[in-house]
Amino acid sequence: MVDYVDALRYARGRNIVLADEFYSLDLNTRQYAGTVSRLAAIEQIKTVLELVNKSLEEGSTFQDFKKQVEAEGIELSEHHLANVYRTNMQNAYAHGRWQQQQRNKETRSYLKYTAINDSRTRPTHLALDGIIRHIDDPFWLTHYPPNGYQCRCSILAITEKQALRQGITPDDKLPTDVVDKGWNFSPMTYGTHLNQVIDQKMLDDPLNIKNNTELMEIKQTAIIQQQADQSIQAALKPLTDANRKVLDNFFEDVASAGKDIPPSAARFVVELSTEDEKLTDLLQDSVQKKDIDLKSKSIVDWMMDSFNSVFGFAKSLKNKLVGNNLKGFDSFNLQKGNVIGIVTPTLFKTAEQAGKNITILDMKGHAIDLSKINGLNGSLLAPDLNLEVVSVTDTDIVLKRTNEVAKRLFVANGRLCER
Q1: For residue 251, how far is the Cα from the chain centroid?
Q2: Could you write out the DSSP letters of every residue in 258-322?
C-alpha cells in the first residue's frame, strides 16, 4: 500500500491530476461512487466501492486492490474485478481532467479527441479520433471519454489558434451513433450514479423494508457528506504558486518522516495560515450549527480530523507563544480575568504592522507550529481552546490557557458571541 505522497507522484507521473486536484482528492470520494454488478449484498457493494475509492486516494495498484477485496471474503473473477477497478478509476480521472480543462478554458478553449490506433480499439471510438470542438460544445456531454468499459481514449485541450490550424470538425462530420450502448458517463454529471443505483434497488424489491431502510440511510449519508464536501471545496481558494510549493515541500517532509496525512488536511492548514476568510467563516458557522445540522457536523468533523492529522506531525512544543497578530483580536474589549473561547483553529503570528505584543502561556502541545511546514509564519491555535486574560497594558497583552470554560466565544472577524 502506498501513502498520499506516493499518490501525488503517481498522479503527476501520469498527468492524471494537477496538484490543486490532488490536495482535495480525499474530499471527492463520494463523487467517484459507482456500482458493482453481480454483488447482491449491500455491504459487499459498499466494501468494493470503498476499496476503489481508497485506491484512488492512495494511488495504489490493481494488485493491492485485488488483495484487499479477497481479504474481505468477496469472490469475483480477476477479469470482472479488473473491469470494476479500471472503469471507476478512469471515470474519476476523466472527471479530474474535465475540471482541469474547465479552469484553463480561457487559454485552451478547444478539445481534441484522441483514440489509440491499434487492433484493440473499437471502430466507434476510432471514428472519433481527431474530432475538434469548442470545450462548451454539447458534443462533449455525450462523447467525452471514457466511452465504454476500459476505454483508452483521451482528450487534449488546445488553443483556438491550434484548433483553427488543425481544423474544427463541422456539424455534418460528427457521428450520430451512441459510442457504446448502455454507457452514460458525462464529466459534468459524474457522481450521481450511486443514488441512481440505490433508487433502482429499492424499486426492484419494494417489500424488503429492512433492506430499503438501510439503502435509504446509505443514500442520505452520502448526500449529506457530498454537500459538506462541496461546501468545503467551494470555500477553498485556487492555489497560488507559492502555496502549491509550500504544500509540495510539506508532503516531501511528511514522506521523509514516514507519516501519512490526507491531502485536504494539509491544504486546510495552509489555507488558514494565509488567513482565508471564506474557509474560516464556513468552519465557524458550522461549529455553531453542528448540534442541529448534520452537514455542519460533517464539516466540523473534517476540521477536527484535519487539524489532528497535521498536529501529529507539526505539534508546537513551545510553552510560550509570542506574536502581535491574533486573527480578529483587535476588537476585543479585554479585561483582566476574562476567559475567551477559540472555537476553530486560529492563526497567531507576528505581522509586519506591529500592534500590541501578545504572549500566550501554557501552550505546549496546544497549537500547530507552522514553522515545521516549510517555514510558514506563526502558529495555528487548537480549536476549543480557552484563554484567560492575565494582564493588559498599552503595549502588551498576556493570555494563559485555562481549563475554565469560556462564556465568550472568539469567532470570525473579531465578533464575539455569548455561550
Answers
A1: 16
A2: T----HHHHHHHHHHHTT-HHHHHHHHHHHHHTTT-HHHHHHHHHHHHHHHHHHHHHB---S-EE
Tell me the whole-structure pTM to 2 decimals.
Answer: 0.64
Question: Sign of the C-alpha dihedral, residues 18, 21, 23, 29?
Answer: negative
pLDDT tens-digit readout, 360-401: 999 999 999 999 887 688 999 998 889 999 999 888 999 999
Concatenated DSSP letters of 47-64: HHHHHHHHHHHHT--HHH
Q: Compute the distance between CA of residue 107 and CA of residue 359 in angstroms, rounded to an integer.
A: 49
Report whether 27 contacts 229 (CB < 8 A): yes
The phi, psi pair for 150, rounded to 5°, reads: 60, 35
Query: Rounded to a whole number, what is the distance in angstroms from the first to the last CA of the chain?
Result: 46
CA atoms within 13 A on the CB side of 199: 5
* Residue the block writes with cell 490532488: 22
- At residue 413, the pLDDT reads 43
| Confidence label for 110 from pLDDT (cuts 50, 70 and 90) | very high
Which of 61, 34, 58, 59 has the alpha carbon at shortest distance from 48?
A: 34
**Tens of pLDDT, residues 286-304:** 998 888 899 999 999 999 9
Residues 6+ apart with CB under 8 A from 19: 8, 12, 239, 244, 247, 248
Say which DSSP state 208 is in. -
Task: Please indicate whether residue 132 or residue 61 has the higher confidence score (pLDDT).
Answer: 132
Contact in structure between 48 and 36 (CB atoms under 8 Å): yes
Cα of 116 vs its chain's centroid, Å: 32
Query: Using an 8 Å Cβ cutoff, are 63 and 42 in contact?
Result: no
**Please, are residues 180 and 122 in contact by the beta-carbon 8 Å criterion?**
yes
3-state secondary structure of 108: coil
Task: Report the SS3 class of residue 349.
Answer: strand
Between helices 263-273 and 294-314, what is the axis angle to 10°? 90
* Local structure of 387: helix, strand or coil: strand
Q: Express each pLDDT in 295-330 by its tens digit.
A: 999 999 999 999 998 998 899 999 999 988 887 665
How do residues 197-214 score in pLDDT, each as one tens digit? 567 667 777 787 777 787
Which amino acid appears at position 372 of this protein? K
Whether omega for the bond prior to residue 145 falls within 30 degrees of 0, making it cis, is no
What DSSP string runs through 144-199? SSP-STT---EEEEE-HHHHHHH-PPPGGGS--S-SSTT----TTTTT-HHHHHHH
